[in-house]
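ARCHIVE RECORD
Type: protein–small molecule complex
Small molecule: magnesium ion
Source of inputs: curated submission
Record status: active
Notes field left blank by submitter.
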Amino acid sequence: MENSGAEIHLRAQDVRRSFRIGGRRIEVLRGVSLEVARGEAVFLCGASGSGKSTLLYTLAGLERPESGSVWFEGATLYAGGDSRAAAVRNQRIGFVFQGYFLLPELTALENVCLPALIGSRAAQSQAAALLERVGLADRLHHLPAELSGGEQQRVALARSLINDPGILFADEPTGNLDSRTGEGIVELLLALVRENRKTLVVVTHDAVLAGRGDRRLEIRDGLLAG
Ligand SMILES: Nc1ncnc2c1ncn2[C@@H]1O[C@H](COP(=O)(O)OP(=O)(O)O)[C@@H](O)[C@H]1O
Ligand SMILES: [Mg+2]
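STRUCTURE (tokenized, with ligand):
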């Protein structure tokens, strides 16, 4: 996928981020640069605490870096204030959080509709179609508590796609699942983005799963290694 003619969909340049804990400052991202081509599936791995989530959130427009830049679809993400970043995020970026983050009082269908115009008929039929696609046609009206972990993660996948984003980010989407269920989720994630030619950036600490994408990156000592 890394041919020179490919369109760059996401680009980070010299991204830095540190946290102050007690009196100590830890430098989590020490100048991270990367380019992801449109339609590429990149897996980002690294030890626990190495900065995977921090980098993913920064790439997805959720956490402003201290310095450095992120470009997405040719526009810089953090210039122009937080409201612009939020608008881009809602419309063009899908995010699957570690631990699903479904609203417990809403059904699967309502959870998937949530990022779209709530109550709109189009959103409802689109949400139902997505739930069908992820294998949950007979679970539309179940509450999260009535679903297994793997099913909840499928709902979260469907929800991340409701606005038809160009790129999907997922933070340890298999982290809370047994290895077989996790493998199914990664297969589904890859199938969904390949069907629709979406770009994918996935964080995982599972080295085997990380080999399933087009490219594997490792974060170590605040920098990326191939
Ligand atoms: N909001 C925060 N405040 C202070 N420290 C943080 C914060 N977020 C992350 N960190 C620290 O930054 C480091 C990297 O965290 P994180 O990106 O969550 O790592 P990973 O996802 O690879 O496990 C950890 O040492 C973590 O404790
Ligand atoms: Mg993390």
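CURATOR ANNOTATION: The chain is about 30% helix and 30% strand.
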